[in-house]
Amino acid sequence: MRVLVSACLCGCRCTYRGGEHPRTELARLYAGGKVLPVCPEVLGGLPIPRPAAEICGGDGADVLAGRARVVTATGHDVTAAFLLGARRAADIALAAGIRSAVLKARSPSCGCGVIYDGSFSRSTRPGDGVAAALLRARGLRVFSDEEQEIFAREVLADAGD
Question: Does residue 55 contact residue 25 with C-beta atoms inside 8 Å?
Protein backbone atom coordinates (compact mmCIF):
# COMPACT_ATOMS: atom_id res chain seq x y z
CA MET A 1 0.00 0.00 0.00
CA ARG A 2 1.18 3.50 -0.76
CA VAL A 3 -0.25 6.71 0.64
CA LEU A 4 0.49 10.28 -0.41
CA VAL A 5 1.89 12.26 2.54
CA SER A 6 2.95 15.87 2.99
CA ALA A 7 6.73 15.65 2.73
CA CYS A 8 7.25 17.77 5.84
CA LEU A 9 5.48 15.06 7.87
CA CYS A 10 8.06 12.51 6.72
CA GLY A 11 10.94 14.68 7.94
CA CYS A 12 11.71 16.55 4.72
CA ARG A 13 12.78 20.13 5.40
CA CYS A 14 10.33 21.80 3.02
CA THR A 15 8.03 23.97 5.15
CA TYR A 16 7.82 27.63 4.25
CA ARG A 17 10.43 28.29 6.95
CA GLY A 18 12.67 25.48 5.74
CA GLY A 19 11.67 23.20 8.60
CA GLU A 20 9.82 19.95 9.03
CA HIS A 21 6.87 18.55 11.00
CA PRO A 22 7.85 14.89 11.40
CA ARG A 23 5.24 12.44 12.68
CA THR A 24 6.71 9.20 14.04
CA GLU A 25 4.22 6.82 12.45
CA LEU A 26 4.42 8.54 9.06
CA ALA A 27 8.22 8.65 9.17
CA ARG A 28 8.21 4.89 9.90
CA LEU A 29 5.90 4.24 6.95
CA TYR A 30 8.11 6.44 4.75
CA ALA A 31 11.19 4.47 5.79
CA GLY A 32 9.33 1.28 4.90
CA GLY A 33 8.41 2.56 1.45
CA LYS A 34 4.67 2.65 2.15
CA VAL A 35 4.12 6.37 1.66
CA LEU A 36 4.99 8.78 -1.12
CA PRO A 37 6.06 12.21 0.19
CA VAL A 38 5.16 15.33 -1.79
CA CYS A 39 5.24 19.05 -1.12
CA PRO A 40 2.73 20.74 -3.42
CA GLU A 41 4.27 24.16 -2.80
CA VAL A 42 7.71 22.96 -3.91
CA LEU A 43 6.14 21.05 -6.82
CA GLY A 44 4.59 24.38 -7.83
CA GLY A 45 8.04 25.98 -8.03
CA LEU A 46 8.15 27.85 -4.72
CA PRO A 47 11.53 28.01 -2.95
CA ILE A 48 12.57 26.81 0.49
CA PRO A 49 12.32 28.92 2.56
CA ARG A 50 9.51 31.06 1.16
CA PRO A 51 7.18 33.75 2.48
CA ALA A 52 4.16 32.52 4.42
CA ALA A 53 1.01 32.42 2.31
CA GLU A 54 -2.70 32.10 3.06
CA ILE A 55 -5.86 31.77 1.03
CA CYS A 56 -7.81 35.02 0.84
CA GLY A 57 -11.47 35.09 -0.09
CA GLY A 58 -12.36 31.44 0.47
CA ASP A 59 -10.73 28.03 0.62
CA GLY A 60 -8.92 25.67 -1.73
CA ALA A 61 -12.09 24.79 -3.64
CA ASP A 62 -12.63 28.51 -4.21
CA VAL A 63 -9.05 28.88 -5.47
CA LEU A 64 -9.62 25.97 -7.89
CA ALA A 65 -12.81 27.69 -9.11
CA GLY A 66 -11.07 31.07 -9.52
CA ARG A 67 -13.04 32.73 -6.70
CA ALA A 68 -10.14 33.10 -4.22
CA ARG A 69 -6.40 33.75 -4.33
CA VAL A 70 -3.34 32.62 -2.41
CA VAL A 71 -1.21 35.56 -1.30
CA THR A 72 1.78 36.21 0.92
CA ALA A 73 1.64 38.54 3.92
CA THR A 74 3.11 41.29 1.72
CA GLY A 75 0.35 40.82 -0.88
CA HIS A 76 2.30 38.88 -3.52
CA ASP A 77 -0.08 36.60 -5.44
CA VAL A 78 1.23 33.01 -5.50
CA THR A 79 -1.99 31.40 -6.69
CA ALA A 80 -0.47 30.06 -9.92
CA ALA A 81 2.26 28.19 -8.01
CA PHE A 82 -0.29 26.69 -5.61
CA LEU A 83 -2.50 25.54 -8.49
CA LEU A 84 0.45 24.03 -10.36
CA GLY A 85 1.68 22.23 -7.24
CA ALA A 86 -1.80 20.87 -6.48
CA ARG A 87 -2.16 19.55 -10.04
CA ARG A 88 1.29 17.94 -9.93
CA ALA A 89 0.61 16.31 -6.55
CA ALA A 90 -2.74 14.96 -7.76
CA ASP A 91 -1.20 13.68 -11.00
CA ILE A 92 1.55 11.90 -9.04
CA ALA A 93 -0.99 10.29 -6.71
CA LEU A 94 -3.23 9.09 -9.52
CA ALA A 95 -0.33 7.81 -11.64
CA ALA A 96 0.87 5.78 -8.65
CA GLY A 97 -2.59 4.38 -7.95
CA ILE A 98 -2.74 6.13 -4.58
CA ARG A 99 -6.22 6.53 -3.08
CA SER A 100 -5.46 8.15 0.33
CA ALA A 101 -3.44 11.10 1.59
CA VAL A 102 -2.29 12.41 4.96
CA LEU A 103 -1.64 16.14 4.76
CA LYS A 104 -0.34 18.90 7.05
CA ALA A 105 -3.07 20.60 9.05
CA ARG A 106 -4.02 24.23 8.34
CA SER A 107 -1.65 24.64 5.37
CA PRO A 108 -2.87 26.69 2.39
CA SER A 109 -1.89 23.68 0.24
CA CYS A 110 -2.49 20.70 2.47
CA GLY A 111 -4.93 21.83 5.15
CA CYS A 112 -7.85 19.39 5.57
CA GLY A 113 -11.10 20.71 6.97
CA VAL A 114 -9.47 23.75 8.60
CA ILE A 115 -7.11 26.36 7.11
CA TYR A 116 -5.75 29.73 8.15
CA ASP A 117 -8.28 32.43 7.30
CA GLY A 118 -6.18 34.80 5.16
CA SER A 119 -5.65 37.42 7.87
CA PHE A 120 -2.16 36.20 8.85
CA SER A 121 -3.29 36.32 12.48
CA ARG A 122 -3.15 32.52 12.99
CA SER A 123 -6.97 32.49 13.00
CA THR A 124 -8.58 29.58 11.21
CA ARG A 125 -11.70 28.91 9.18
CA PRO A 126 -13.38 25.78 7.81
CA GLY A 127 -12.09 24.57 4.45
CA ASP A 128 -9.37 22.68 2.63
CA GLY A 129 -6.10 23.90 1.17
CA VAL A 130 -5.65 23.95 -2.61
CA ALA A 131 -3.97 20.52 -2.95
CA ALA A 132 -6.32 18.90 -0.43
CA ALA A 133 -9.35 20.23 -2.33
CA LEU A 134 -8.02 18.93 -5.65
CA LEU A 135 -7.12 15.53 -4.21
CA ARG A 136 -10.64 15.21 -2.79
CA ALA A 137 -12.12 16.28 -6.14
CA ARG A 138 -10.09 13.55 -7.83
CA GLY A 139 -11.47 10.91 -5.47
CA LEU A 140 -8.75 10.48 -2.84
CA ARG A 141 -9.56 10.09 0.85
CA VAL A 142 -7.80 12.98 2.54
CA PHE A 143 -6.81 13.09 6.22
CA SER A 144 -5.12 15.73 8.34
CA ASP A 145 -1.98 14.72 10.22
CA GLU A 146 -4.00 15.57 13.31
CA GLU A 147 -6.39 12.72 12.43
CA GLN A 148 -3.77 9.96 12.60
CA GLU A 149 -5.97 7.66 14.67
CA ILE A 150 -8.68 7.82 12.03
CA PHE A 151 -6.09 7.31 9.31
CA ALA A 152 -4.64 4.29 11.09
CA ARG A 153 -8.06 2.75 11.62
CA GLU A 154 -9.49 3.41 8.16
CA VAL A 155 -6.47 3.16 5.86
CA LEU A 156 -3.71 1.15 7.49
CA ALA A 157 -6.06 -1.47 8.93
CA ASP A 158 -7.53 -2.01 5.46
CA ALA A 159 -4.03 -2.58 4.11
CA GLY A 160 -3.12 -5.05 6.82
CA ASP A 161 -0.24 -2.92 8.09
Answer: no
